[in-house]
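Hi everyone,

Forwarding the result from last night's run.
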Amino acid sequence: MQSVIERLEGEWERLAVDRRAARRLRAVCEAAEGAETLGEVKQYVCQAEPADADRVLLALVRRAGEGEPLAARVLLQLLLPESASRSLPCTRSTG
C-alpha cells in the first residue's frame, strides 16, 4: 500500500507537466516569470530569491482563498518536502 506522500508525489508527476492545469493558474505562472507548467512554477520557487518566491506563493494563496483547489494542491506540493522531512514514524507502545 502506498503512503500518502507517495500518492501525492504520483499525482504531482502528472500535474507538473499538465499545461491545462497551469492555464488554470495563469496569474501564478506569470508571477513565476512565465512558467508554462506547474513543474516550472515549483522549480522557479525553489531557485528564486526569497522575495520572488514569496510573490508566487502569495499568488497561490490568493487563488486558494478564492476557492481554487489546484492552487491549494500546488502549495501543498511546495511545502511537502519540508513537512515530510519533519514527520516521524508513528510507534505504538506495546506495554
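The radius of gyration is 15 Å.

Cheers,
N.
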